[in-house]
Amino acid sequence: MISEEKNINEGTDQVQQSENVILEQPEGKRFKLLVGDKRIWIIVLLLMIISALEVFSASSRFSFNDQNYITPVIPHLGFMLLGFVCMVVVHRIPYRYYKLFTLPLLVASAVLLLILFVKGIGNPNAQRWIPIFGFQFQPSELAKMAVILYTASVASKTKKDDDYSKKDSFWKIIVCLGIFCALIVGENLSTAFLLAVTIVLMLLISGVSTKRTLILIGTGAVMAGIILMFFVVVPKSTMNSLAEKGIVPGRATTWQARVLDFVDEKQTAKEYAQVTAKDKPQETHAKIAIASSNFLWGKGIGNSEERDFIQEATCDFIYAIIIEECGMVISIMVLALYIWLMYICGTIISKCRNKFASYLVVGISMLIGLQAMMNMMVAVGAMPVTGQPLPLISKGGTSMVFSCIYFGFLLGISNGIEQDEKGEVRENVQETV
Length: 433
Fold this sequence. Notes:
Blueprint: H1 2-24, H2 38-58, H3 74-91, H4 102-119, E1 121-123, E2 126-132, E3 135-137, H5 139-156, H6 163-185, H7 189-206, H8 210-233, H9 236-244, H10 252-263, H11 269-279, H12 281-291, H13 318-351, H14 355-379, H15 397-432
Antiparallel strand pairs: 1-2, 2-3
Helix pairs in contact: 1-15, 2-13, 3-15, 4-5, 5-6, 5-7, 5-14, 6-7, 7-8, 7-14, 9-10, 12-13, 13-14, 14-15
């Protein structure tokens, strides 16, 4: 008798709670412009504030000619605003429609990457941008998004108990990845590597042919080892000759130099200062910036002394400037924000019942997390220079806009999950009543 009364009371409490949800969410509720997981909005806001302050500070060397300290940072603020608008638009689109973007983005990115070989802007051996309406656009950013969407789309259609379906999906994804990595690798090896690792992790986590994915990882590790040994063993003069003849990519000489500089531990501190440091001033001054940062609190925003000696202080090495000016407290906070984002993405995945959306969150979180890690490791000298921007912080129009779109996807999916849960509560209340 007591247990029956307890069950009745619990049922009554559930109905009351559900009715409260309905009362709190009336049909005529006001439209909210910004929805989704509030924690993601907090991360976006904090990263953008840090970006505005640090890019303004690190842009000082561009202000020497006309003594105007605002003009160099205006384009960055403009792209931040454009990216924020894109994020707001994307996150209001129901996540079930994100799949529709896949084919158009794949075609567009492939065409733009091919155009890059003809009308590219940048180093002759690393043409990464094409001019569009007076702006420099980086097609590889679009390609990364397209391949991640395609992988999530194909993986979501895979039948877990059908080996033929797994095999078919696996090879579709691998062929697509191979084509786009081949188009990207000539202009930016690290971007192709980042994309490949992201997609392989998506394959592994989604369970699309786990056995084949593990074989792929092993094969890739062996090939990477062979390539690294090739860079170490082959003399620089031979590599230059191979590059001139077109046998290896023109950027191979740069890749070799970075690998050799990173693995060379035979130099004394004096030899390094007198010889090697002159050949790679960015890495040297980044280390000086970190070493002279007053550890905990830094020198204060705007007081960096090394930003004027680092060519890519606003992009590739901005984390070194953050450490120099803000110290370990803020730099660790920046790292913690990306880790927090990864945790939030994990909670979103655990609640998401739509396979496409969950796999898309996996891909986006892996891409942002790995890219942030690569940028910060380069800044502190833990890996060779890669040229990867720090998401939502580094200066770079294309990178900023697409990073915002990624966050728009995450917000849209988290909002969709919230709406689905509320819909289920209403349906349960109606059935109970």
